[in-house]
Amino acid sequence: MTTPHKAQESPNRVLLCPPTYFDVVDAKNPYMSGNAPVDRERALCQWQALRSALEQSGCVVETIDPVPGLEDMVFAANQVFVGWHESVGKFIVPSRMLYASRQREVRFYVQWYRERGYKVLDVDLGDDRLEGHGDLLWHPDRSRIYAGYGFRTTKAGLEKFAAAMARLAIPVVPLQLVDPYCYHLDTCLCPLNNEAALIFPGAFAAESLAALRQHWRRLHEINAEEAHKFMGNGIVAGGNYITPCVTPQLEALLQEEQLTPWIVDTSEFEKSGGSVFCMKSFLP
Question: Which residues contact 242 (CB under 8 A, 6 or more apart)?
Answer without folding.
Answer: 50, 53, 54, 57, 234, 235, 236, 262, 264, 276
